[in-house]
Amino acid sequence: MEKRKNLQESIKYVAQKFLEKTKEKEICLISHFDTDGITSAAILINTLKRLDKKFSIKIVKSLEEDFICTLPKEKTILFLDLASGSLNAIKKAGLKNVFIIDHHEVIQEIPDEVEIINPEFNGKEKISSAGLAFLFCKEIDSEAVESAKLAVLGMIGDLMEKSIDKLGEEIFKGDIKKKKGLLLYPSTRPINKVLEYASQQYIPGITGNPYGIIELLRDAGIEPSNGKYKSLIELDEEEMKKLTTEIMLRNPKIKNKEMIGDIFLLKFFNKLEDARELSALINACSRLGRSDIALRFCLEIPQIRREAEEIYAKYKRHLISGLEFVTKTKKIEGRGFVIINAKDNIIDTIIGTIASILSNSPSYDEGTIITAMAYYENKIKVSLRNVGRTGRNVREILEGVIQKTGGEAGGHEFAAGCIIDRNKEKDFIELLQKSFEIEMVKI
Q: Do 271 and 302 form a contact (C-beta atoms < 8 A)?
């Protein structure tokens, strides 16, 4: 693998190599099951179809070594939104034609057989895998700009909306609109329903509480008309100011600059939708075991929309019940950390979302590490998040622990996760707690 200092130069180089190595070979796409991974896959599918390339697609929750060993050596393998932490396993499996488009941290040596696009090598630019997949596809297909809205969805899914301009100014000439507003979604739905499921901005006494919502809206001077509340984008300037003030009074840790920002509206199924809501819906389908529906939704297959919306409604109910469980359950707490072991009370595919919601909660000080665990077959899914995206490097802490317990880890400095065997549960918790306490002593 040849490194390039400039990200665009790196993308151009890898794109050329990809075209050379796939002239006569079938392509096997392997993508992660979250919004960023699903949109990355959809971008590649659109492009490979236009180029008349033969390919197959597999969406996975995690990239385990046993799975990598089953991949066909005669095909070109393209990993999307994963594999940066699986380079040793790829080498061990003897795969010969491997491409990786990912943005997670790289901690292993890159095998000669692997070509990788990852901003970790280019000044750690903030761009998601869907953004990288879009820029990659533009190099091999001039019509790939039509997938710009999918790249925007992936960027938003990984909380990188501030870097969307890196996709290029031409993306705003099509099905994408941008406007300033309150960063609660969906901005196109009644405000009471938006507040009920608000997760990015967790509001104590409001999120998941219909009665608290009515009281907040009444205090903000917002009343329903014919039994229905306005949507966010229908609020006038004075109503928006009052609503923002009432939310900040209930969650004083939220800064005004975190509340107001760019709202992206995308045309999906010929209707203008809030990108954050679409991103959450895609994520929900995958996390409830229907990544096939998530992918077909991204490809805008008409009959899929209703089914996707039904899954999304079910997912939101899971989130609310998960948050209720977390509120009541006993936790392991210490200086700068909280460990929540949900066992089989929360499904493993949403435990990371629960951890993210809690990391946006005013209940914990900035820099606190939230660890959430849930059973997954004979394994345990573990998710770590830093409150305020500041403090210690949780991926490094996690790597140190699983070196002793076994397991597979990946992620970023302030958001990481791993999968461990269930019989290591007690050892893992003790070692993790000890690591947190040692880190605090160092500080």
A: no
Per-residue pLDDT of 225-274, as tens digits, reads 888 998 888 888 888 888 888 888 877 666 655 677 788 889 999 888 88
Here the tokens at position 284 are: 């929900």
Burial class (CB in 10 A: 0-12, 13-18, 19+), 239: middle
Rounded distance between C-alpha atoms, residue 104 and residue 99, angstroms: 15
Q: pTM value?
A: 0.79
Which residues are registered as beta bridge partners of 101?
A: 80, 117
Which whole number is the average pLDDT over 19-48? 95
CATH fold for the domain made of 7-165: inorganic pyrophosphatase (n-terminal core) (3.90.1640)
Q: Which residue, chain included where needed, has tokens 């200086």?
A: 335
Q: Is domain 329-442 classified as CATH 1.10.260.40?
A: no
Model pLDDT, residue 6: 86
Strand duo 369-376 + 337-341: pairing: parallel
d(CA 352, CA 272) in angstroms, rounded, equals 29
| Rg, the chain, Cα only | 22
Distance CA 193, CA 277 (A): 12
Report angle CA 99, 101, 105 to the nearest 5 degrees. 110
Residue appearing with tokens 């019989």: 423
Q: Which two tokens stand for residue 434?
A: 């000890």
Q: Decide which of 2 and 304 is more confident.
A: 304
Domain boundaries, the chain: 7-165, 178-322, 329-442
